[in-house]
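Human: Cast an eye over this sequence-structure pair and say how the chain folds.
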Amino acid sequence: MRVHVLQHVLFEGLGSIEAWLSHRGARVSYTRFFESAQLPPLTDIDFVIALGGPMSTNDEKQLPWLQEEKHFVAEAIASNKVVLGICLGAQLIASALGARVYPNPEKEIGWFPVFPEPVVSGTFVFPENTEVFHWHGETFDLPSGALHLASSAICRNQAFQIGTRVIGLQFHLETTPKSAEAIVSNCANELLPKSRYVQTKSVLLSVPAANYAGINGLMKKILEYLIRDVS
């Protein structure tokens, strides 16, 4: 399995996905936009993973590579590649397919539950009440043809699916203690001003190991779902 990772900042990496890819014997390549915007031919790829980042999908004037990245994501979906978008990555999928990305009514930063939406048979099903790691200030409209998978109290569109090979997650299931420390260290300014949906640094980093095990286990289920028919 050939996997290409779209990484936007050094401090937001694959997290728990890295071990899963290694176990699968995947060949992993990267476009690290903070170093180079060079994108590979889609013929060389089975699976695209678009990671998070503090920028907006609407920042094309400041970051012109966003337009090329969106085209790449749209082409990957049209070519029936497996595509997973996480946080900014989910917003990129939405934007690439013509949906609007815009500020959420409130920032959502910390450990908060998401709830499943009614789905049809064969769609990925989220657990009834899952506390996950959030770090976002924007949200998106669902792209045309997308199935709504999950919502939260302050952000309706938390997860969606297109066909059987594309999933977008507004939240982070790949987060490990190390990656949580990294995003807090680099984005601590976003923890102010305090609000009911923005937790403090101490609360964010004091959750038990079971929280990470739970979200990483759910991430694995999503990955296995996406590649179940990939040779």
In short: The domain at 2-226 is CATH 3.40.50.880 (Rossmann fold). The CA atoms of residues 54 and 88 lie 8 Å apart. The first helix runs from residue 17 to 24.
